[in-house]
Write a structure and sequence with these properties.
This protein is of the alpha+beta class. The protein has 25 helices and 22 strands. The longest helix is centred in the middle third of the chain and has 26 residues, at about 310-335. This is Glycine--tRNA ligase beta subunit.
Length: about 675
């Protein structure tokens, strides 16, 4: 009869970042260990709070099925000599615990098999528990040792519970023996809870003020926050990461609100959000879902139902107040001089020891940004240059020193306060964008150009000093920089030659490394990021390679070709042309020299005339489409080749004995092949 299995590990408060992954490792370890041993199991429920990790598995078989054990021994040639068993054969029999007569043969080797009765599930659990602990330990780089024992875990373990049905499964670890005892909330219900069977676990803990299920506790916290925010006339800013962290910090969530003094509203909202959310794990409130206006309130989740909530609120406000006071002081001090006054201090800040100071990097970025702006629109040069000159100045301000995550944002505020044009301030504010995959690119042309120049300079500099990323390490976040640069070019509509920009950035580096291999490596690195970007948006590997083979070096042009090709691929014409071009390419490769002249008077069958005329018409039609970069229309025009190409291959033998006839036909295939490379190399597509 199947039984329910409950395992719980109780500990001192676990670090929030480890609660969810350790819970998953526990569930996967116990359920997976049973499955590997052939024990059938039902559904598994995970439970996780700061003080406990638990799993409840339904319908666990009480007994492991019988196990067939098989062993292969030495080859027969080595097992017998003159018809008698050799020491190798006898040793194999001894290792199996039987006489040599009980050993069989299979696939040219000695073979032994026997069926072992399955073990009771309870007897398997200690080994499964040990395997699971090892998997959990791998998630935690630094573990604790406590008391006089030598065993380690992320935090000291206080109790172990293991029930299979109504029986305790004996486990020994951390100087503890497993039992049927759990514990409720540390303050509301500290007494021991004796469980009769596994299914009593969740309701018993709920009565003891422990909301054990992580997912439903998280949903409840969200609802409490949203309800309290509505009562305060605002909208809570709830990030998934902060919600997960807060959920991992409490067992019995209770929402509490607090006030911020009106004087702190003079601060930029990002400073307040960073202070309240990052440092205190509180939630901020805004006037609406678009986070238009910050409100002077915060919401926190307590782990207790206090008898004097006013004292708790006052304590929370008392913790926030000095942090915001410091932030306001730093902000007002920074505003006493314009942003441009901080630029000279950048010379004392090192960017990278071989690449110079931040001031030197800023000078390189400014020069490259001006060149890019001139390529895009001459009217942008002045604002772009000014923004690039000031972009890094906020790194030496007091607020950014205290809150490094606000770099760029504060520069934008200080630029506006100092009277800089709005375009300059916005470009400074956004020049670190996109910060990661999925985040937006800068909203203005000026911001995109400065951000692009900054990322290209970083890429070129680090490659120039030979510090390019490895498979496992990317300390300068070059993959993110390359992806950001590509997204700016593609999504920002900047039709620029990437290879040329990279070369200009490389030339400007103090390392002076302009080896061709460096430029080639850097460009290839960016192309691999373009591949990842394209495939993440639904492009197939074949389609990407087909466009790449066309030799295009403008990412925006690459993207336009790729999207046109993806729309074309499902058609019958695409498959037919791909197959025809593969065939033509193979014939041309085997023929060696590619003829360039076609003599219509040497055509022998109507199919040759038809293909020749269609090729001429298509070549003429493609010229204006090529100039307009209308790749969709170009592929539609190429699709008209399907019928004459199919008829040509059906009607003629290309490698005719007559040299002039053969040359003519090879010339037709060469012109077909050239057209099939116009947008992308169609021979690389499935067909």
């Amino acid at each position: 009869m199947p039984l329910d299995l409950l395992f719980e590990l109780g500990a001192e408060d676990l670090p929030a970042r480890f609660v969810a992954p350790l819970s998953k490792a526990l569930t996967d370890g116990i359920a997976g260990g049973l499955a590997r041993r052939g024990v059938s199991v039902g559904s598994a429920l995970s439970f996780a709070t700061p003080r406990r990790l638990a799993v409840l598995i339904a319908d666990v078989a009480a007994q492991q099925p019988d196990q067939l054990q098989e062993r292969a021994g030495p080859a027969l040639a080595a097992a017998y000599k003159d018809g008698k068993p050799t020491p190798a054969a006898l040793g194999f029999a001894r290792s199996c615990g039987v006489a040599i007569e009980a050993i069989g043969e299979k696939d040219g080797k000695l073979h032994f098999s026997r069926t072992q009765p399955g073990q009771p599930t309870a007897e398997l659990l200690p080994a499964i528990f040990e395997e699971t602990l090892k998997q959990m330990d791998e998630l935690v780089p630094k573990r604790m040792r406590w008391g006089s024992g030598t065993e380690t875990f992320v935090r000291p373990v206080q109790w172990l519970l293991c029930l299979l049905g109504g029986d305790v499964v004996p486990l020994s670890r951390f100087g503890l023996e497993s039992g049927r005892i759990s514990y409720g909330h540390r303050f509301h219900a500290p007494a021991a809870i004796a469980l009769s069977e596994p299914r009593d676990y969740e309701p018993a803990l709920r009565k003891a003020h422990v909301w054990a299920d992580f997912a439903s506790r998280r949903d409840n916290i969200r609802k409490q926050i949203e309800s309290k925010a509505g009562q305060l006339g605002g909208h809570a800013r709830i990030t998934e990461d902060l919600l997960d962290e807060v959920t991992a910090l409490v067992e019995w969530p209770v929402v509490i609100a607090g006030d911020m003094e009106q004087r702190f509203m003079r601060l930029p909202p990002e400073v307040i959000v960073s202070t309240v959310e990052t440092n205190q794990r509180y939630f901020t409130l805004f006037s609406d879902a678009a986070n238009t206006q910050l409100l002077p309130y915060f919401i926190t989740i307590a782990n207790i139902e206090s008898s004097d909530v006013g004292q708790v609120i006052a304590g929370n406000e008392r913790v926030v107040r000095p942090r915001l006071t410091d932030a306001l002081f730093f902000y007002e001090q920074d505003l006493k001089q314009p942003l441009s006054a901080y630029v000279e201090k950048l010379a004392a800040v090192t960017f990278q020891k071989e690449l110079g100071s931040i001031a030197e990097k800023s000078a390189r970025v400014s020069k490259l940004a001006r060149k890019i702006a001139a390529l895009v629109d001459d009217s942008l040069v002045a604002d772009v240059g000014r923004a690039a000159d000031l972009a890094k100045a906020d790194l030496v301000t007091k607020v950014v020193f205290e809150f490094p995550e606000l770099q760029g944002l504060m520069g934008g505020y200080y630029a506006s306060a100092g009277g800089e044009p709005q375009a300059v301030a916005t470009a400074i504010r956004e020049h670190y964008l996109p910060t990661q995959q999925g985040t937006p690119i800068p909203s203005t042309a000026q911001g995109r150009i400065v951000a692009l120049a900054d990322k290209l300079d970083t890429l070129a500099g680090i490659f120039a000093i030979g510090q390019k990323p490895t498979a496992s390490k990317d300390p300068f976040a070059l993959r993110r920089a390359a992806l950001g640069a590509l997204r700016i070019l593609v999504e920002g509509g900047l039709d620029l030659e990437l290879q040329d920009l990279l070369e200009q950035a490389l030339i400007a580096q103090p390392a002076g490394n302009r080896a061709e291999a460096t430029i080639d490596d850097l460009y290839a690195f960016c192309l691999e990021r373009l591949r990842s970007y394209s495939e993440s948006r639904g492009a197939s590997a074949e389609a990407f390679e087909a466009v790449r083979a066309s030799g295009v070096t403008r990412p925006l042009d690459f993207e336009r070709r790729l999207q046109a090709l993806l729309r074309f691929l499902p058609s019958d014409e695409a498959k037919s042309l791909a197959a025809a071009d593969k065939r033509a390419r193979n014939i041309l490769r085997q023929a060696g020299d590619t003829p360039t002249t076609i003599k219509p008077d040497r055509f022998e069958v109507p199919a040759e005339h038809a293909l020749f005329e269609t090729l001429q018409r298509v070549e003429s039609a493609l010229a204006p489409l090529r100039a307009a970069r209308d790749y969709g229309a170009m592929l539609s025009e190429l699709a008209t080749l399907k019928q004459p190409v199919d008829a040509f291959f059906d009607a003629v033998m290309v490698m005719a004995e007559d040299a002039q006839v053969r040359s003519n036909r090879l010339g037709l295939l060469a012109r077909l092949d050239a057209l099939c490379r116009e947008v992308a190399d169609l021979s690389l597509l499935p067909g």
